[in-house]
Design brief:
Layout: E1 71-76, H1 86-101, E2 105-110, H2 117-129, E3 135-138, H3 143-149, E4 158-161, E5 171-174, H4 178-192, E6 197-204, H5 207-223, E7 228-235, H6 246-258, E8 263-267, H7 272-281, E9 285-290, E10 306-312, H8 314-326, E11 344-346, H9 357-369
Parallel strand pairs: 1-2, 1-3, 3-4, 4-5, 6-7, 6-8, 8-9, 9-10
Antiparallel strand pairs: 10-11
Helix pairs in contact: 1-8, 2-3, 4-5, 4-9, 6-7
Length: about 375
């Protein structure tokens, strides 16, 4: 069931956000970045947004939460721990709960790329029968399995990442505003593109991944009326192998670069490694997703091309969910993890976007204030 936005998560403060200055075209002055960074060459045609004041508030966390009586089950999507993407982010949230809240026991299991719904149901059922509570299903692919399993274990807490279709009292959706974080990725891509030509590589053609595409394209076009955007998906809906096929990611990445794109943004799970490799081979840039991929060991050999990552804070959502279960306060969770609660955002590791952080934060402030409405569909 959907949860109310909790007051425990701080809002972002901002100032000077009264108009949609970011979307006003500046045809006569390419110094749109103002004092905050590079102009993006001739590609940027929009005036820079008003600067956002840094918030003095910080996200609050309950002190000294004791979760030692919890046994946490983690059911991964394809790729599992080590995918350098959202499975790893979920794992990080559980690992933090073990370290900081004393979770006594954890178990994890990974879905196969071609497994049946029965296999997913069996995975969740086995965890529940073994006394794991809460159980966290990582990915929308578990929705049907959870609809079947959760009613059989009404005293077990379940959560599902990236889906809010399961109507059950013991199921909590952990959903995100991927389009808002992807909007900032699109802005960053244009500012760093030398060719005024960028690309999006989606893993599987699903409504969820369409949100990444929609935000990225909208962000790119909000700052440039000249930019060209390539869009490709590795597999169609129903074929989830697109999230775990680096070789296919490499082929599609090379294709987009061959067409002129010099900054590629992927939302393709473990397949993103292939996109990074394509960028490295062509001396292009890339944008990671979900985790701060610049710091992921599994892509360390290609990290120099990762200019930023769109952070989807699955780790925060998972950690907060476990804490809420321990405190018996699920209503403290936000309805959606968005920019306002830092549920999505961007990374600065590697320093490649340091010169445009004021611009990115300005757009972030406008989205939080409602001055910019980001569409969840292309």
């Amino acid at each position: 069931m959907r949860r109310k936005r909790g007051a425990a998560l701080a809002a972002i403060a901002m100032a000077g956000v009264l108009t949609l200055a970011a979307c006003a075209k500046d045809s006569g002055d390419n110094s749109a970045a103002g004092d905050g960074g590079e102009s993006g060459g001739d590609c940027v045609t929009a005036a820079a947004p008003p600067r956002a004041e840094a918030s003095s508030q910080k996200r609050e966390e309950s002190a000294d939460v004791d979760a030692s009586d919890l046994k946490v089950g983690l059911a991964y999507d394809v790729g599992g721990r080590g995918d350098a993407s959202f499975n790893d982010a979920a794992a990080a949230g559980v690992d933090k709960a073990v370290e900081e809240m004393g979770v006594s026991d954890t178990t994890e299991s990974t879905a196969a790329g071609t497994e049946s719904e029965d296999a997913k149901q069996q995975r969740l059922t086995q965890m529940a029968r073994e006394g794991y509570d809460p159980i966290i299903a990582v990915g929308f692919a578990y929705a049907d399995a959870l609809k079947a399993v959760a009613p059989k274990f009404p005293d077990t807490h379940f959560a599902i990442v990236d889906d809010d279709s399961v109507e059950a009292k013991n199921v909590t959706p952990l959903v995100f505003a991927e389009e808002e974080g992807s909007f900032l990725a699109g802005v960053a891509a244009v500012y760093k593109s030398e060719n005024c030509h960028v690309g999006f590589v989606g893993g599987v053609d699903t409504p969820l991944i369409k949100k990444f595409e929609a935000g990225f394209v909208q962000g790119a076009k909000a700052v440039s009326d000249k930019v060209k955007v390539e869009v490709d998906y590795l597999t169609p809906a129903g074929d989830i192998s697109g999230f775990n096929d680096p070789s296919k990611g490499n082929v599609v990445g090379k294709s987009q670069i061959g067409k002129g794109a010099d900054v590629l943004y992927h939302a393709a799970g473990a397949s993103g490694r292939g996109v990074f490799e394509a960028a490295k081979d062509a001396d292009a840039l890339a944008i990671g997703v979900d985790s701060d991929q610049y710091n992921q060991k599994t892509v360390a050999e290609v990290k120099d091309v990762i200019m930023t990552s769109m952070l989807k804070r699955v780790d925060v959502a998972v950690y907060d969910y476990i804490r809420a279960v321990a405190e018996d306060d699920l209503d403290s969770l936000p309805e959606r993890f968005d920019l306002e609660v830092d549920g999505v955002g961007y990374s600065t590791s590697g320093g490649k976007v340091d010169d445009i952080t004021e611009i990115l934060d300005g757009y972030k402030a406008q989205i939080v204030a409602g001055e910019i409405k980001v569409s969840a569909t292309p």
